[in-house]
């Protein structure tokens, strides 16, 4: 198992894509993505399991890692949990959690990393917020005992750089990659501002 997520994590949402989700993820991997967070929580478990297996096949040749949203790792070893629970986290090699404020951060126990959101206004979730912006992100990063991924409204390299400067270990991006005409090109540009962290799986 590689270390905690850093650099860029691609978050899936098949409803925003113009082609099959595995094609988008393959292009993202071609662009340099090594971490993918599988959402698609509306799918029946058998379909979601099959999708997880297909994405792991895409990530395996490059040493990438699939994170699965929710407590069920779908045959893997890495999950990303919502702020609402479960508590305590399941005992798995890699566990992340979504957080949004100090109260949620205070509930962390054995999680390996967190996402903080929303950082910027998000086209995928209009009205979701209020946005933390890099200043608010930096404030929460200082209160967080584990690596932080910045999530929400990240669409370009300047925003990635601002999140890294605020202390984030990386960014998680959904809509911009899912909607991109050329996911590989976009991912390559988003990764450019991020230093390579040894052992991170990138």
What is the element layout, followed by pairings?
Layout: E1 7-11, H1 21-30, E2 35-38, H2 45-59, E3 65-69, E4 78-81, E5 94-99, H3 102-105, E6 113-116, H4 133-141, E7 148-151, H5 157-165, E8 170-173, H6 175-179, H7 183-191
Parallel strand pairs: 1-2, 1-8, 2-3, 3-4, 4-5, 5-6, 6-7, 7-8
Compose a concise summary of this entry.
With 202 residues, this protein is α/β, with parallel strands linked by helices. It has helices at residues 21-30, 45-59, 102-105, 133-141, 157-165, 175-179, 183-191; strands spanning 7-11, 35-38, 65-69, 78-81, 94-99, 113-116, 148-151, 170-173.
Q: Count the helices. How many? A: 7
Strand fraction: 15-25%
Average pLDDT works out at 92
The main β sheet shows up as: 8 strands, parallel, barrel
Radius of gyration: 15 Å
As for the number of domains, it is 1
Helicity range? 25-40%
CATH architecture: Alpha-Beta Barrel
| Cα separation of the termini | 12 Å
How would you classify the helix and strand content by structural class? alpha/beta
Low-pLDDT regions: 196-202
CATH class: Alpha Beta
CATH superfamily: Aldolase class I
Structural shape: globular
